[in-house]
């Protein structure tokens, strides 16, 4: 009987190894899989590349992961905020690499990775420092920058409800990057507030089908 519900967050993180590339959902704190991140810190895998919208807030969740020293590089859209002092300190000390990607491009690159596309052209960042060294092309009079897909070894996302097949629903803004990240990774772990029986989720309301999810961790509301 297919059952993707995993006993604990620690067990779900046991497959993560040194050097892995990990997509971590969340728009700031909204939709950030905090319990999975805590378990990843305990796992203590090193030399990680993290892809996320931002570089952490305060000293919780993603920021705490950076503070642990496990992360070699972060790919994100908003590395600096009023409470991103952990990333700031690490970056100024040369202890972490940074790749800045415009938010829409970040989502589009992951979507391309999940869709099996070879590359995409986007007008975003054309003529800026972010486009330096990249191939450009003019299509129908509009200048574009060639961007390559983002794919990862793992994705850690947060959802509202899930069933034992891995079908997921989300709650409002907590949805953010979860769906594209689930599709762009080889192994997706979703923490959920509720695990429901098969058939409870309306098929029309399922955002991420179970085919993209490998493990479901129940962490409560």
Write out key terms for the chains shown.
6 helices; 23% helix; single chain; 3-stranded antiparallel sheet; 221 residues; 9-stranded mixed sheet; alpha/beta; globular
The major pleated sheet works out as:
9 strands, mixed
Total E-strand runs: 12
Give the terminus-to-terminus CA distance: 27 Å
Number of helical stretches of at least 4 residues: 6
Calculate Rg over CA atoms. 18 Å
Dominant shape: globular
Average the pLDDT over all residues and give the rounded result. 96
3D structure, described in words:
By secondary structure, the chain is α/β, with parallel strands linked by helices. Helix content is 23%, strand content 28%. It has six helices and twelve strands. Strands 1, 2, 3, 4, 5, 9, 10, 11 and 12 form a nine-stranded mixed sheet that branches. A three-stranded antiparallel sheet has the order 6-8-7. Helix 2 (34-43) packs parallel to helix 3 (61-67) and helix 5 crosses helix 6 (178-184).
Short description:
Helix content is 23%, strand content 28%. The protein is built from 6 helices and 12 strands.
Topology:
Elements: E1 5-6, H1 9-13, E2 21-24, H2 34-43, E3 48-51, H3 61-67, E4 71-76, H4 85-92, E5 97-100, H5 103-115, E6 120-122, E7 136-139, E8 142-147, E9 152-162, E10 168-169, H6 178-184, E11 185-195, E12 215-218
Parallel strand pairs: 1-12, 2-3, 2-9, 3-4, 4-5, 9-11, 11-12
Antiparallel strand pairs: 6-8, 7-8, 9-10
Helix pairs in contact: 2-3, 5-6
